[in-house]
Design brief:
2 copies of one chain form a homodimer. The first copy, chain A, is an alpha/beta fold. Chain A is about 40% helix and about 20% strand. Chain A has 10 helices and 12 strands. In chain A, strand 7 and strand 8 form a beta hairpin. The first copy, chain A, is globular, with a radius of gyration of 17 Å. The two termini of chain A are about 30 Å apart. Chains A and B meet through helix 4, strand 3, helix 5 and helix 6 of A and helix 4, strand 3, helix 5 and helix 6 of B.
Chain lengths: ~270, ~270
């Protein structure tokens, strides 16, 4: 029997935190998602979560994304990483509590970027964890950067990178809207949800995609889509669902019909 | 000017936690140590801390050190790692609060062992962190093991490994006694403190060294000494001081005279 192909689940920072606050986790949402992940019981799963009101405001305060310019930023780099580990700890707490053999894998320990793009990813341990039956949990993080000194690495870039590298079977992206709309659904009353998009359809409409309005140093919805396109181009389908609504993530993980947007190569 | 040689500071789990409790951190001690580390302002520093009442009881409960025998242990591996990240988070919190550019480097993401001994350590990012001026903070952790499936990695093994690999200038080990005694100072009234020991002197007396009485899956004081001997043999001096008493760690980091035991090759 061949092994199940890898599934990557991205959980947006706007889902598990209140982005209008600071360091404001939504622990009840984190717990519900852990329950859905436990119920789906997907073999060969990687989870990646965003920074929400943990990573983003701290990174912004110290200008981490723009790189190392002054020594005083160093402790800001440390602080940004530290607040991300706090959020990551809350996610792991819920997963372990739900009996999921999850293990945090910290990007700042094993990734190096160049101008913000991953050039080095030490994945020997990650592969072994998957093979042994663990669920690696990564998150948006700070990283050392060969050109900038350091910078911010988005969870979305990690998702696309891992999906392509490990030839994932699918990507599920949990966000705080029902999927992709032809206009920002929070600003436009009659915004229409796309149920299915091909890569070429998506290319045409991507400029109109609604962005996150709160602080997001890594680019909101458009940033997400731009990151994910190369994975779709490699034939990996992406389902974007509302993780703030119960059972959407569960159904997407199970491959069941669910409200949301599916993006496929053709 | 040549760069300062690496200093490795080990902080025992029995110092920063109450080992008679469970998940019982001594945050006031952690804060004082962060203050001492800030004051010493050592260039080129790695900090490693133990598991105390976080890692040890959890690892023991699931038999993690003995390896992967049943699927039900997997979530115990996750839980052991998770509680260690909680303790690590408290340490990082104090360090960052004291303006130290500290960054957690998680052994379970970058180390693989074989029968409990490190055979693979992905240190590219660790080296870069040191070079950029960060203070990497590691801790005892769980690791994947090529023979056992998984196991426990002691902070002491990490200290000796890193010291030898990076040719450290010195190792400072903070414990909860004043140093090495000719008998267990907690059990024997007139136990005598050794101020200085050479490697050959230590070899002769090591069987009499007092061990930690509380749960320590990684071997207590004798385990510590056995781990550290090869680093001493490579010419790296080790200072063992009481980190539970103010300013001992500070003085040892500064190379000042301080009560404790110094171990040197000759």
């Amino acid at each position: 029997m061949s092994e199940a192909k890898l599934t990557i689940l991205k959980i947006g920072g706007s889902v598990i935190t209140d982005k209008t606050g600071e360091l404001a986790a939504r622990t009840e949402v984190i717990n519900r998602l852990a329950e859905e992940i436990q119920k789906a019981n997907v073999k060969n799963l990687i989870i990646v979560h965003g920074g929400g009101s943990f990573g983003h405001p701290t990174a912004q305060k110290y200008g981490i994304k723009e790189g190392l310019k002054e020594d005083t930023q160093k402790v800001g780099f440390s602080e940004t990483h530290h607040v991300m580990t706090v959020l990551n700890g809350l996610v792991l707490d819920a997963l372990v509590w739900h009996n999921i053999p999850a293990l945090s894998v910290t990007p700042s320990c094993c990734v190096v970027t160049e101008n913000g793009r991953i050039t080095y990813f030490e994945d020997a341990v990650l592969k072994k964890l998957l093979k042994t039956g663990f669920v690696p949990v990564l998150c948006g993080d700070v990283t050392l950067d060969d050109k900038l000194g350091f910078t911010v690495l988005s969870g979305d870039q990690l998702v696309a990178y891992l999906a392509r590298k490990f030839d994932a079977g699918k990507i599920v992206i949990g966000v705080d809207t029902d999927g992709l709309y032809d206009a920002d659904p929070k600003a436009t009353k009659n915004a229409k949800l796309y149920a299915h998009l091909t890569l070429s359809e998506l290319e045409k409409i991507k400029e109109n995609l609604g962005g996150s309005t709160a602080t997001d140093v890594t680019g909101g919805m458009l940033g997400k889509i731009v990151e994910i396109l190369p994975a779709v181009g490699q034939g990996i389908p992406v389902a974007i669902v509302n993780a703030a609504k119960p059972n959407r993530v569960y159904k997407a993980l199970m491959g069941e019909a669910v409200e949301g947007t599916v993006i496929e190569k053709e």
